[in-house]
Structure formats: structure tokens, C-alpha cells
């Protein structure tokens, strides 16, 4: 069975709220940030809410091993010029893993980092060194390095860069990769030739390292290095290419997570935004592109 869900929020009810939101989309997995992705303020994990959430997952047949946490993107392991910031990032990610363990979450996605003002090789070395400090045997949750679009000085935009980091990691059982289809396309990998990508990945890393796939269309052309997600089938990757990845025989057991943009009241009016996930999941399960998706989403939520 297809393992599919979307990014959901983590609010006052913490992971219990996330599970309920995922269920409202007809999903059988989900991804959440354990707080605002743009800051490092974190509330303690509430064990009562967590227990309730885990029971609900069990009842609704959501396997917690398929649920993904996403680390905030403001921490940067790529640069240690500001050693205090670098060490803060290391401690912060270590603490995020501890929070994941408390919720029985087994996989956390991380943007590798940025090599600001240094060579990309120095950036990759900094990231690997930080990861070896983070994975110090005190936590169980895995880190999945996300494939990046190559915006600015982003590290992790090619298979070679990811392989370079992964080869330096001591705790191999705790390191993996999260593919992001929008980032791959923006990074220059043609998603209509996805098997070529997988073959290179298998040769240089290992397909078993793929722990999650972010399924997004892209607003920009191949190799644009922009990183702007589009709704499934409405972008430059296209529905058939995405469907081919979603249902790929070699990636059956890998959770697929949608991070597509919310839909506005009209294409011009973005004052009220509606989540597209229930409709995108339906469309993916039907295996048929729905050109009226956005109108149907508006009708459904606008009451
Ligand atoms: Fe991400
Ligand atoms: Fe992503
Ligand atoms: Zn992105």
C-alpha cells in the first residue's frame, strides 16, 4: 500500500493535533516540525498528548515508523566561522533528536547546511563533523539529509555531495537521505529520467539510505536553483513524472510527503489559504490528473 501524507502543523495539541490533521486528509503518514521551523523556541513534549497520539495512530493504522519530523532550517551545520552559532546548531539538533525519541519518531529530515563564504568542500566537512558530534550514541532517531535545490551556497545539491558527507559518518545506521522532487529538478536532475538518478544514487550511496521522499511539483524550470514548490501536476515536473516516482517499484516502502503550496481564494487573492493535501492525495490514489483541483479545494473549504 502506498505510504502517503503531507506536511501538517504541530500546534497546542502537539503530535496529537498533527495526527488528526493527517487523518482529515486521508493520509496514512505525515511530517511535522516540532515547533516553528523559522525559530528555535521549543516547548517540552507533553507525554499525555503523545500517548494519545500514538494510540490514535495504532487505531487508524498509521505506522509511527513512517512518520517524519523536519528540523528547522535556520540552524546551519555548514559553517563554523561563528563557532558559537555552530555549536548552538549542534546542540539544537541533538535536542531535536531527543524530542523525536520521546515521541517514538524514527526519522528526522535535515537541510545539510550552507557554505557561506567558504568552499563547498569545507562546508561538507563542517557538516560531517557536526553530524558525528550529534550522533553520539545518546539518541536513536535517524537523520535524513535532504537533497537541496542549490540555492545560494546550499550544500547537498548533488549525489556526490551527499555521498561525500555520508561516507564520513561513523554511525551509518543513523544516516540517510530524503529526496525532494522539486529540489532535484531545480538542482538539475531531470525527473522524466528518474531511473538514471536512482541508478547513480544506487552506485554512489545505496537505495536503502532513502528514508523519505518529498513529493512536490516545481514552479521553475530544470536547473533553475530556485526552490519554489508547486501543486502536483501544475508545475514543470508534471503529473506523470511524479506518479512514476510515487509508485516506483524500488521505493515502495518509502514514505511520500507532500509539501505543496496552500491554495488561495482565487489565483490572485491569497488572503485565505486552503490546504491542498486531501485533494492531492485523492488525485494520486486515482492516478488521474484533475485540472480543476484548485477550484474543488476552494469549494470544499469555503463555507
Ligand atoms: Fe525541507
Ligand atoms: Fe522538502
Ligand atoms: Zn523546498
General description of the model:
This protein is of the alpha/beta class and 303 residues long. The protein has a single domain, classed as Alpha-Beta Barrel (TIM Barrel). Helix content is 37%, strand content 16%. The strands form 4 sheets. It has an 8-stranded parallel β-barrel with strand order 1-2-3-4-6-8-9-12. A two-stranded antiparallel sheet has the order 5-7. It has a two-stranded antiparallel sheet with strand order 10-11. Strand 1, helix 1 and strand 2 form a beta-alpha-beta unit. Helix 4 crosses helix 5. The longest helix is centred in the N-terminal third of the chain and has 20 residues. The radius of gyration is 19 Å and the shape is globular. The two termini are 33 Å apart.
Amino acid at each position: 500500500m502506498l505510504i502517503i501524507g503531507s506536511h501538517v502543523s504541530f500546534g497546542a495539541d502537539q503530535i496529537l493535533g498533527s495526527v488528526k490533521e493527517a487523518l482529515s486528509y486521508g493520509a496514512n503518514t505525515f511530517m511535522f516540525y516540532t515547533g516553528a521551523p523559522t525559530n528555535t523556541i521549543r516547548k517540552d513534549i507533553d507525554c499525555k498528548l503523545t500517548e494519545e497520539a500514538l494510540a490514535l495512530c495504532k487505531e487508524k493504522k498509521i505506522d509511527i515508523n513512517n512518520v517524519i519530523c523536519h528540523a528547522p532550517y535556520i540552524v546551519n551545520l555548514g559553517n563554523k566561522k561563528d563557532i558559537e552559532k555552530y555549536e548552538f546548531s549542534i546542540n539544537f539538533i541533538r535536542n531535536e533528536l531527543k524530542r523525536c525519541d520521546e515521541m517514538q519518531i524514527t526519522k528526522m529530515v535535515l537541510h545539510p547546511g550552507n557554505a557561506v563564504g567558504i568552499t563547498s568542500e569545507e562546508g561538507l566537512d563542517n557538516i560531517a563533523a557536526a553530524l558525528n558530534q550529534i550522533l553520539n550514541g545518546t539518541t536513536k532517531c535517524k537523520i535524513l539529509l535532504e537533497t537541496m535545490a542549490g540555492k545560494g551556497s546550499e550544500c547537498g545539491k548533488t549525489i556526490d555531495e551527499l555521498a561525500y558527507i555520508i561516507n564520513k559518518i561513523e554511525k551509518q545506521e543513523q544516516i540517510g537521505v530524503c529526496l525532494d522532487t522539486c529540489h532535484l529538478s531545480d538542482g538539475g536532475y531531470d525527473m522524466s529520467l528518474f531511473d538514471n538518478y536512482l541508478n547513480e544514487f544506487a552506485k554512489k550511496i545505496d537505495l536503502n539510505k532513502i528514508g523519505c521522499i518529498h513529493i512536490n511539483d516545481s514552479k521553475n524550470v530544470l536547473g533553475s536553483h530556485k526552490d519554489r514548490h508547486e501543486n502536483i501536476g501544475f508545475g514543470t515536473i508534471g503529473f506523470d513524472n511524479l506518479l512514476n516516482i510515487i509508485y516506483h517499484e524500488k521505493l515502495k516502502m518509502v514514505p511520500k510527503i507532500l509539501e505543496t503550496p496552500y491554495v488561495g481564494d482565487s489565483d490572485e487573492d491569497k488572503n485565505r489559504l486552503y490546504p491542498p493535501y486531501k485533494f492531492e492525495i485523492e488525485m494520486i490514489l486515482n492516478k488521474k490528473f484533475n485540472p480543476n483541483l484548485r477550484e474543488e479545494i476552494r469549494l470544499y473549504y469555503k463555507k
